Amino acid sequence: MDIGLNALIQNIFNSLSLGGLYALIAVGYTMVYGILRLINFAHGDIFMMGTYFAFYAITAFFLPWYLGFLMAILITGLLGFSIEKIAYRPLRNAPRISSLITAIGMSFFLESFAVVVFGGIPKSFNVYPKFFSDIILIGQSRIPLLTFITIGVTFFLFLVLWWILYKTKIGLAMRAISVDIPATSLMGANVNNIISTTFVLGSAFAAVAGILWAMKYPQVQPYMGFTPGLKAFIAAVIGGIGSIQGAIVGGFLLGFLEIMIVGFFPSLAGYRDVFAYIVLVVILMFRPTGIFKIYSEQKV
Description:
mainly alpha; two-stranded antiparallel sheet; two-stranded antiparallel ribbon; disordered C terminus
């Protein structure tokens, strides 16, 4: 079925944009799991809180949009630090089911907190400059400037993350902890600080994704993090939970799948979300470790 070259180009850029957002969120899931073997189910709600922080930093405190966005990212990173210290750290040596239940409870808490404090009525996220909505022509394809900004910010942050993980001491410590926490502690590393830094990084990435998401789909509401968070988790599982490159690849694959199927078969647009779950089932059936398998030793 031919959708035309111009439509194909537009769908490719849309796929890169959506896939990049999924990948940004998925990185937070996989970083935490890689270190603690914990699925942070509150991560999608941290994504939501980041958008609210940006919205009110600009509308209530009258900050310029760029300072409001930066402030929101910093506060969301602090939120991730606080959640790790208050909710997860005391249960670090407890059975994993306890941490899992706590993560689910933290998700419900953040959603309820947003409803009580920010209100349950959706708000229009129109706090960014209007030129972000300008259209750029590539041939006959009309691509919003925001799409290029989203793709550019996404790849820039992945480069920053690569630099942190492979060119800094904190990144070396993160990779060491993902292999063996007690051994890393015996070598003099402050395990608590490193784990907290991981939560801060993952939460900051979620905040960036949340802001870009709210600019792409200009509305904020307390439950907006559920679907993107769930799909980002699926992306992390597709790529191999615990693998940074897997989360990135999984996010882009999921973005391409959603956009391209709807592009080629517009009649299936109403079933768009279903395809992510179908892919998850297939992956779990035939390659449960994901595309990038993480090998680990079990001590008995």
